[in-house]
Amino acid sequence: MRAAVVRTFGGPDAVEIAEVPVPEPGARQVRIKVAAGALNPVDAGVRAGFFGGAGKTIGLGWDVAGTVDEVGVAAAWRVGDPVVALVGGVADPLGAHAEYVVVDADAVAAAPAAVDAVHAGTLPLNGLTAVQALELLDLAPGASLLVTGAAGAVGGFAVELAAHRGIEVTGHARPGDEELVQSLGAARFTAGPAEPRSVDAVLDAAVLGAAALEWVRDGGAYVGVRPGAHPEPVRGVRTGAVAVTADGAQLAELVRLVDAGVLTLRVAETYPLEKAAEAHARLDGGGVRGRLVIVP
Question: What are the CB-based long-range contacts (under 8 Å, 24+) for 252-257?
Fold first, then answer.
């Protein structure tokens, strides 16, 4: 089968389409015939070597939407089930940008009924990052939250999820994104520096770091999306970062919210697997609203 991999680190031209063996599921695993999967900034980081793995063949892709193709022992899925899953791992030989992928059965959820596979393939990584970041913040209804990068994939989901929970959201993004961010449920919008110490918490999807921390009130909370890159606590502000993990139960709840119209799945453009390097070049160019999706 074909898979997008890197053998040497670098720019988009480091992405290769390789012929690799079809993976076999073990106990409590399923094999998915991939229909689509989003390209995310973490893939560019893997490609560039930020996560290590020099000298190895590393598979690309974390998001997968497709159908169950084979099940291992004690895996509670059936062949033909339409599913979505997060394929974790930054130095594994096979990722989701491939024709088939194997994942643990408990990382899988039934695919949304309301959207096609291309849109479904944008949900797992960014949706789980947003919901797990909100769990770390642990905000009650009525609390104030500022989301940086609110027009992006993680930020957009965070705005929608927080607003759905009754949290008062301020979206921080570029000036031209105001209408989009407000359509996602943000009560307020800002494109410049926010008022210092004005919110209970910040979810820093844009990785602004210390600048975003200044917007949190004394004793509030800050959560980033890049483990190890969050600022040190000050003024009693609790700081941390989400390290996203596969969770089929959480993913199933996100799917329910997609089908209920709470979460918006945005696709900017699709690329066939053989043009994965072109998709990486487009991602590196910046300014993408919605996800670029790889279709085997």
Answer: 252/109, 252/110, 253/131, 254/109, 254/123, 254/127, 254/128, 254/131, 255/84, 255/109, 255/110, 255/111, 255/112, 255/123, 257/161, 257/164
- pLDDT, tens only, 40-96: 999 999 999 988 888 899 999 999 999 999 999 988 999 999 999 999 877 788 999
Instruction: Kindly report whether the global pTM for this prediction surpasses the value 0.85.
Output: yes
- Of the candidates 197, 199, 196, the one whose C-alpha atom is nearest the C-alpha of residue 188 is 199
Give me the residue spans of the domains in the chain: 2-123+265-295, 126-241
* Domain 126-241 class in CATH: alpha beta
The architecture in CATH of the region 2-123+265-295 reads Alpha-Beta Complex (3.90)
Statement: residue 17 has pLDDT above 80: yes
